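As noted in the main text, all predictions were made from sequence alone. Below is one such record, for NUDIX domain-containing protein.
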Amino acid sequence: MLLILTDGDHVLLALRDGTGYADEQWNLPSGKLEIGEDVISALVREAAEEIGVRLHRDEARMVAAVHHRNSAGASRVGLVFAALYDPARHGEPVNNEPHKCAKIEWFPADMLPSHTYPYTAACVAAWRDGTPLRLSGWR
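Prediction:
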């Protein structure tokens, strides 16, 4: 699952670093389910683990599903959630995983950096367009 945290017309992205996967590319806060975990619990957990944000279970809404295939041909389906950032409720976003992430930064949703990971770009585009299902990396 992936989180589009918005502050006005900006989205929060993390610059991957030191993982061996999509390093030096901007990515949405995201993660995988742990055994026995529901997707909402995973979203709340990953937001806290990656960016130190305290999301409440009922505030993020699912905005899209993206079926992405990377350049090696591996594919995954991501559930994309959006939440409006509220500093008083959520706390200040921080880079909680410096061993996986060089920094976090807000970007205009319509002007993502050129080195945004294609999966992230597809998720943001689906959210902006209101497209409930988007294919990315498929011909």
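The helical segments are 39-51, 87-90, 118-129. The longest strand covers residues 75-84. These features were considered when defining construct boundaries for the mutagenesis experiments described in Section 2.9.
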